[in-house]
Amino acid sequence: MGTARGRWVMGESAAPGAAPQEEAALDRVLAEVAGITGSHAAGVFLLVPHAQALRLAVVTGLSAGAVRPWSRLALATPAPVSVVAREGHPVWVHGHDELARRFPRTAFALPYRVAMYVVPLRTGTTVSGVLQLLWPDTRPDRLAPDERAAVTRAADRMSGLLTRAAARGRPLRPGAVPRVLAPDPPPPVPPAEAQAAAELTERLNEGVLALDLEGRVTFLNSRAAELLGRDKRQLMHTRLWESLPWLIDPAYEDPYLAALFSRLPTDFTALRPPDDWLSFRLYPDTTGISIRLRTAPAPAGNRLPPTTPSGTAPTRAGALYHLLYIASSLTEAVGVRDVAASVTEQIMPVLGADGLSLLITDEGRFQDVASRGFPRDHKDFFRGLSLTVDTAGSRTVATGTPMFFSDVDAIRQAFPLVTPYTRMGAWAFLPLNASGRTIGCCVLAFALPRAFPPDERAALTSLAGMIAQALERARLYDTKSQVARTLQTALLPHSLPHVAGLRVAARYLPAASGMDIGGDFYDLIRLDGSGAAAAVIGDVQGHSVSAAALMGQIRTAVHTHASTGAAPDDVLTRINRLFSDFDTDLFTSCLYAQLDVPGHRALLASAGHLPALLRHPSGRTEILDVPPGLLLGVDVAADYRAAEVPMPPGSVLTLFTDGLIERPGTDLETALRELAGRLAAAPVGSLDDLADELLREAQRTSGGRDDIALLLVGPGQAPGG
């Protein structure tokens, strides 16, 4: 069923703060399930903390270089791995045709004949990663029951490891680069047999080569060296498409990647100058790739491929496949920071760039939006640099055309006074053209000289145009978003009234993305009578100016009717009837609590809102059972009922909106129980500290997908107060 892997690990041994023994256990399970199911390549992706992204933590069967373009994925990406992480259910894809139908962007970036199965991994009840396995698409079109069962067992074991690590406060996190499990070596061959095998290949009238999973030559016979026109020693431990100038082309590296990913034989024909055509046939397995090399007749038309000067870095295969896929991810970037993250975290690694700066113009100077891979003095040089200074960047902006420098001599000759340019081997300055004007410059730098062939220049220039359009949209978004947030803040209470004997803490946190105004609101209203107050929380449907306007109307109505001393059910009934005058088709959830602080009790009524939680002085926390009522605005004739609950000194009543608990792959009841557990386990302290801790946990688990409103109230003095 396949060779077990995991004899040793290459790459980063552990993510910071992780438990090495549990990482090793995760690696063992991955190697075992790949061997049992016959999967030739498998990997584990884990969620990146505080980011809407997944990163490849460990992989087997593929090289680090091969998986680099796919090692980080945005959670919103329409790819099998991201969909499973978001939705929490497995995805099976049999072959490239099905992949192209269901996940066209992924199929474009991964144009190889593979079948894949992706399953979620959970920490407790929350999806925190995925397991992905690959097979050749020649396999049966369905998983056998024993294969599916083996994958399920492996996912359960991995989930258990993740859960235990998190419970110990040392959760498993993906490192900066994935760990690569090396294949188990083949059984040792006696020296006499090895010598006989080498002699056998020497007697053949064709070339024989062996590559490891990284594409490096580990063996070649004399005929192969003769056909390739190099000495054996010059070719050993090199990649052919890097060491042979006439193979420096993505078209020649791609068959290696196709064989590596699909584990199916591939072939191609290449011209060795001046006029010798060679046929390469690649045979992959779990340890590497064998190549049979023969002379070949000239193809029809005898069109000569372009050549690249010797000594320059090649354009990576996979980068060109991945370019449009990455560029399409820019359409998902919302603000300027999102665009910058997409460019530095996804585009830069795919291009193989060693340095990248994203510069925009502002009042005649450059602003450094994002920079990676450069020393500080380079960043300082560009930050605030006047466009009147003659640099490659300012000239690119002035002309709106790209500039490429294949080596240090070329850029030194053009700009002899700009010393930071001399620290890299090659440079590309790409204009950011949008709406008929140049808004900035994208600077790419490479450690080695680079030829920048015509197709790459065209692709990079097109990519820069897409970045420019994304940046222009993002700058407009950020401006509108700031206006929206300012308006939303103005609609919420600037401060809460003091109520004798009542501790209060309130928080509002807008969603991490989305420039429209949210409809979440909260309020505390002092009522007539000593120690009487009303605590209110609600959520207007949607995110828009209309939702904000309705939120303002509801807050005003709540104040008006609460001040009359009406009971909670009466307040909701009256506000619901007002919806006929509001001229809106939006619905609103609302929870109203009338607090009798001296009497140590509260009356609660709900209009379709999430239940409140009550933490008792002992720490026990319960989800309050309040009679359900329709959302406000659904039926103006709806009635609401109230329920009374005790609130002894030291208790805490928690009111919140759904953004506090909603997470991908977690149902509402589970999320409520988990919140109750966090409240029960929280140390006794100030309500402000408790509110901050609840928000931190929500941001960690949900990533700020929705607005959060939180209101904590409790009778009695704060500890130490």
TrEMBL record:
Catalysed transformations (reactions): O-phospho-L-seryl-[protein] + H2O = L-seryl-[protein] + phosphate
Alphabetical keyword list: ATP-binding, Hydrolase, Kinase, Magnesium, Manganese, Metal-binding, Nucleotide-binding, Phosphoprotein, Protein phosphatase, Transferase
Short name of one Pfam family: GAF_2
Record EC number: 3.1.3.16
Domain of life: Bacteria
Top EC class of this enzyme: hydrolase
Cleaved signal peptide residues: none
Location of the PAS domain: 193-236
SUPFAM superfamilies: GAF domain-like, PP2C-like, PYP-like sensor domain (PAS domain)
InterPro entries named among the record's database cross-references: Bact_Sigma-Reg (IPR052016), GAF (IPR003018), GAF-like_dom_sf (IPR029016), PAS (IPR000014), PAS-like_dom_sf (IPR035965), PAS_4 (IPR013656), PPM-type-like_dom_sf (IPR036457), PPM-type_phosphatase-like_dom (IPR001932)
PROSITE patterns: PAS (PS50112)
Gene3D superfamilies, A to Z: 3.30.450.40, PAS domain, PPM-type phosphatase domain
Any one GO molecular function term: ATP binding
Function in brief: Primarily acts as an independent SigF regulator that is sensitive to the osmosensory signal, mediating the cross talk of PknD with the SigF regulon. Possesses both phosphatase and kinase activities. The kinase domain functions as a classic anti-sigma factor-like kinase to phosphorylate the anti-anti-sigma factor domain at the canonical regulatory site, and the phosphatase domain antagonizes this activity.
Protein name: protein-serine/threonine phosphatase
